[in-house]
């Protein structure tokens, strides 16, 4: 049982390049989330999903797109990367039970030059 | 969702009890209070959750006064390995609300 797996773990992009971060969970969770964390700051919610085929905006959605085509996967896309998107990205999932705890992945360190 | 306010940092020594307080003045009736712990280069992990009064597990205790406008995470006899950032979340997530908003957290530094 791997829990929440994020790929890749590290990535360096040039400004304007695109990429997709993959989050996979094997706990059959309905809810999935993408956060970013910048130095000295807490986690900020980018997008989230309450089920397969559904997505919604969080606190800082601009510059990102997401898709949840399969229940176990939640993809985060950067269409045209900017240096301001240099950050550590965390994916999380939780069950539909009320106030069920979040399970986090180990993060993706992204640098945009 | 209710906004939370925590101290930015706290210092402690090994073996001491540490209490971290979180303010959430506009907490709603259906909101629960949840605490997470984050070590460097790792994702946060769940510590404890409560609605009112006191909750205790093998890791920590959570004290919530009657008005629920604040909560206190208590870590008994901390060790160096408890050095981490601690986040307080308030909300009824999993139900109608699914935006789980983290604040900046409290950096706890435990010294020998």
Describe this entry's structure for a reader.
The complex is a heterodimer of chains A (113) and B (112). The model of chain A has no long low-confidence stretch (mean pLDDT 92). By secondary structure, chain A is mainly β. Helix content of chain A is 0%, strand content 52%. Chain A has no helices and 11 strands. By secondary structure, chain B is mainly beta. In chain B, 0% of the residues lie in helices and 46% in strands. In chain B, the strands form 2 sheets. Chain B has a 5-stranded mixed sheet with strand order 1-9-8-3-4, with no helix packed on it. In chain B, strands 2-7-6-5 form a 4-stranded antiparallel sheet, with no helix packed on it. The radius of gyration of chain B is 14 Å and the shape is globular. The model of chain B has no long low-confidence stretch (mean pLDDT 89). Classes of the chains: A mainly beta (113), B mainly beta (112). The interface between A and B is medium-sized, with 30 and 24 residues.
- The number of strands of chain A is 11
How many beta strands in the DSSP annotation of chain B?
9
Strand order of the largest sheet of chain B: 1-9-8-3-4
- Poorly predicted spans of chain A: none
Roughly what percent helix of chain B? under 10%
In terms of DSSP E residues, the strand content of chain B is: over 45%
What gap, in angstroms, lies between the N and C termini of chain B? 38 Å
Briefly note the structural class of the backbone of chain A: mainly beta
Task: Output mean pLDDT of chain B.
Answer: 89
What is the oligomeric state here?
heterodimer
Global shape of chain A: globular
How many strands, what sense, and barrel or not for the largest sheet of chain A?
A: 7 strands, mixed
Helix fraction bin of chain A: under 10%
What is the number of helical segments of chain B per DSSP (H or I, 4+ residues)? 0
Instruction: Give the chain pair forming the largest contact, with residue counts.
Output: A-B, 30 and 24 residues
Order of SSEs of chain A, N→C?
EEEEEEEEEEE
Order of helices and strands of chain B: EEEEEEEEE
Anisotropy-based shape of chain B: globular
Instruction: Please state the CA-atom Rg of chain B, rounded to the nearest Å.
Output: 14 Å
- Biggest sheet layout of chain B: 5 strands, mixed
Number of helices of chain A: 0
């Amino acid at each position: 049982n791997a829990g929440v797996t994020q790929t890749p773990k590290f990535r360096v992009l040039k400004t304007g390049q695109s990429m997709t971060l993959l989050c996979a969970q094997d706990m059959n969770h309905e809810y999935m989330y993408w956060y970013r964390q910048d130095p000295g700051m807490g986690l900020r919610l980018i997008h989230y999903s309450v089920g397969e085929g559904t997505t919604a905006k969080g606190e800082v959605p601009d510059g990102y797109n997401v898709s949840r085509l399969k229940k176990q996967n939640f993809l985060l896309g950067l269409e045209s990367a900017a240096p301001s998107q240099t950050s550590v990205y965390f994916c999380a999932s939780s069950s539909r039970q009320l106030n069920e705890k979040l399970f986090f992945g180990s993060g993706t360190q992204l640098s945009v030059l | 969702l209710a906004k939370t306010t925590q101290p930015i940092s706290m210092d402690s020594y090994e073996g001491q009890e540490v209490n971290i307080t979180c303010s959430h003045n506009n907490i709603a009736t259906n909101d629960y209070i949840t605490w997470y712990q984050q070590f460097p280069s790792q994702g946060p992990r769940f510590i404890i959750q409560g609605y009112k009064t006191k909750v205790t597990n093998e890791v920590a205790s959570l004290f919530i006064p009657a008005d629920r406008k604040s909560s206190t995470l208590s870590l008994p006899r901390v060790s160096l390995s408890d050095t981490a950032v601690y986040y307080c979340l308030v909300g009824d997530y999993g139900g109608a609300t699914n935006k789980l908003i983290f604040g900046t957290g409290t950096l706890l530094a435990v010294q020998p």
